[in-house]
Amino acid sequence: MIIAAIKPYKLDEVREALTEIGVRGMMVTEIKGFGMQSGHTEIYRGAEYAVNFVPKMRLEIVVTDSLADTVVETITKTARTGKIGDGKIFVLDVASALRVRTGDVDDDAL
Amino acid sequence: MKKFAISAAALLVALPALAQEATEAVAEAAAPVAEAAAPVMDKGDVSWMMTSTVLVLFMTLPGLALFYGGLVRSKNMLSILMQTTLIACLIMVLWVVYGYSFTFGGSTSPYWGGTGKLFLSGVTADSMAATFSAGFVIPEFLFIAFQMTFAAITPALIIGAFAERVKFSAVLLFSALWVTLVYFPVAHMVWDVSGLIFVMGAIDFAGGTVVHINAGIAALVGCLVIGKRVGYGKENMAPHSMVMTMIGASMLWVGWFGFNVGSNLEANGGATLAMINTFLATAAATLVWSLLESVQRGKASMLGAASGMVTGLVAITPACGTVGPMGAIALGAIAVLACYFFVTVVKNKLKYDDSLDVFGIHGVGGIVGAVLTGVFSAGSLGGVKGEDYSIAAQLWIQIEAVAITLVWSGVISYLLYKLIDMTIGLRVDQDTERQGLDLAVHGEQAYHG
Question: What residues make up the domain containing A22?
Answer without folding.
Answer: 2-109
